[in-house]
């Protein structure tokens, strides 16, 4: 029951991750509910019972129990990994790649994959115990037969190092795919949020509540896009491809990366201390020299409602410039400048606090 509720919550939080405080932390906690010790023990017991049916030998039972624990964990990893799309899908794909990459040397043979390793150890233990007389022929044959019926695929994988490596590549491709899907989903969400800004009105009970709420949401944005980009980078590395192929200026990956780093800075600044006329701040900047006056006014309106210490204003401006970057209305360098101006305006300072201005330029 708890696991079913956790799966539903993971799906909901992932669908609405940009609006939920610390969404990745919450999803991680819920995934641990799915992988609870009680559930693992129950599944391991069922596997052990099936594999030791008709056998009454402690050596067989002990070897099978070790194998069953691993298989139960992996089953729950897969269950947790499919509980939601978006960032939950990315988190699950990382686990899938880790399990596929798990590596050990068993009797001089290099084996890859948590399940294949557990299978190889089980078969080797049974073989050794049979050869030493600790297991009789009848129990040995029954154990091998039971295991073969349920886990023939692992036996085939054990015999084929090439298939083990290909499975790792498949997991890496899945990770890349989930990373792109996550970026695209939340880009779409940001675009919709920008459209709906004027229709939304939410008031918290006190200014400190506004601050904490804003920090939590900025953290979610930073974590979501950082992990999505990392998924693509890690997946490309496993596939032997150059990450820079798709991390070029103007690409969705590049945009996601700068949005993530901007959110990281925003959450560190927002709980400190917005103003200058924004159009005047950008009109003489070389980054905007190719924009006409109408463009400048439109761009300045992206930030236009920020006031000093205005939590809602800085969140809304962040959503708007994120949306503008996603839609190609501004480029990454212009995004960095606008983000800088937004922080300056929020802080009521010319250069930003604690070097935030220089840091946002450093990301580009």
Question: Secondary-structure blueprint of this entry?
Answer:
Blueprint: H1 2-15, H2 23-34, H3 37-51, H4 58-81, H5 86-101, E1 103-106, E2 109-112, H6 114-131, H7 137-159, H8 161-196, H9 207-238, H10 252-269, H11 278-283, H12 293-301, H13 311-327, H14 332-347, H15 356-363
Antiparallel strand pairs: 1-2
Helix pairs in contact: 1-2, 3-4, 4-5, 4-6, 5-8, 5-9, 6-7, 8-9, 8-13, 9-10, 10-13, 10-14, 10-15, 13-14, 14-15
Report what the structure shows.
It is a single chain. 73% of the residues lie in helices and 2% in strands. It is mainly alpha-helical. 41% of the residues are buried. It contains 15 helices and 2 strands. It has helices spanning 2-15, 23-34, 37-51, 58-81, 86-101, 114-131, 137-159, 161-196, 207-238, 252-269, 278-283, 293-301, 311-327, 332-347, 356-363; strands spanning 103-106, 109-112. Helix 6 (114-131) packs antiparallel against helix 7, helix 8 packs across helix 13 (311-327) and helix 9 packs antiparallel against helix 10 (252-269). The model is unreliable at 200-212, 270-280, 296-309 and 349-364 (pLDDT under 50).
